[in-house]
Amino acid sequence: MTRTAAAIPSCRFPAHSDPRVWLLSSGASPIGIALSRQLLAHGDFVVLGVTLSESMGSLVRRSADFAAFWTGEVLLKEEWKTRARVVALDARSLVGTVEELSSTARSSALIRDQFETNYFGHVNIIKAALPSMREKHSGHIILLSGITGHLGTPGLGVYCASQWATEGFCDSLSYEVAPFNIKVTIVQPNLEISILTNQITAAPQLPQYAEENNHAPLFREIIGGLLDRVDAIATTNGSSNGHCDLGRFSSDGIVSQYPQLSEGTKLQLLAETVNALAAIGGHDNPPARHIVGHEAVANVKEKLKTVSEELEDFVDVSCAVDRHPQVGEHRQDSDDEVQELS
User: Is the sign of the CA dihedral 289, 85, 27, 253 positive or negative?
Assistant: First the structure.
């Protein structure tokens, strides 16, 4: 039997006296829909961001799932309808090696499009929200990133770069807004959350990066592994995922598609992240980064371990370039020179 919205248990929210206002920049995505259900049921206000191309008068749709949620749940519940609004925003994932994304003028333009959406989109939303937060001397900015903000992934170079830019931006921002009692948190779920719940756009494949010529684990093959994993999830909840044509990602043109996941699969896939977002939002002392899921934690730990080991392996070389010795060393050298001169 296919799982329904009730598949995600009620979230645990931090204590608060008044309803909060949430702006979800990907409100029409599966995670946006799942989180909105929890927030509206809890009594909070929700502003849902959707793509401009999917706006159709009073009905804003990214998919049949969002249309069903908006018309079949939000608009039918008076207490929800008065606390939900829609604005036009966007989110997507870009697939292709660095060389493939530079092979034509159109594919090169995709690089700028990726940063306009995944980096400048965040920057613009935060810029617009900060004056109100600063005036109220209260606010919590939560950005849903991914472990791609920690780990480089072959075939996702530009997507990872947009995430790393966002991470650096948020690190700096957190220091700037701390005096105004505004918190900043980056939430990093597993790879499949950020990739399989958004539109995937792929650049034309170069023959040098085809599987038979390049044995690196490029992302076209990684996507296949992710889809196999979510198919296994679908089997456990008795549902069936739709077809995702992986062959299109190896075509000669630019292609875009949404992975077709069943409702039960999406809910089970997103449960950990939805609960993490609800538990962190408005917390008095939230983390600067929150890694979601055992696999994501293990991957980030392994990356940090590798960085630490490389640092130790080359620490002598790193320190050898210092032009100014430590204070104690400098004093000793000066004393030796004085003794020699005397």
Answer: negative
